[in-house]
# Entry
Amino acid sequence: MSKHDESRRAFLVGAVAGAAAGAGAVATAAIVSDQQAQTTPETGVDPLAHGARQGAFLNAADAETVAALAERIMPGAPGKPGATDAGVLNYIDLALAGAYTDLQEFYRHGLAALETHCRMTYSETFAKLTPAQQDETIAALEAGKAESFAWPTPRAFFDTLRAHTMEGMFADPVYGGNKDFSGWALVGFPGVQLIYTPAELESRQAFTRSPVAGLQSKARTRST
# Structure
């Protein structure tokens, strides 16, 4: 992973960890929420993992783009899960078929405009670009300089994808992301615990017990 990827991960993880420290562990998922098949040789990411072949809302092509975008926003590294590992694509797809149905047209238009921009600039789809080209594209979205966008604006589209990526990384696994509590492990969030011992309540050391897996077994996944 490049130094640019490392710094991006450190910033995003630090922001979530800081929110948890300031507001209390129980509120972490809500804080993040409010901020709301084949491996390519360029990225090494399997964009059609986690049941992406037949999504709840996204088709295969859009799922590939969303997966690639999320992975560049929150890249994985050895021993450090990223968006693909955490099932962010699954979370976003399920959300668009449920709580975020009002954003379906927003995503359709934004993804179409993104692919138009990438084909005009690089003669290729976003998912097939090199990591450097993907970062250049993301920088153009942030700066509002992707002329293929009308509605949504490029910045609004990127901000929404980034917020949803963070939700998929750190929200409760019952919503389809944060696979195997990977996001919570990154920030040291203990998740659901049925009971704390007197020693744990009095300790000033970092809490290290894993979250209870009760909700994990009920996490929703996309159709395959």
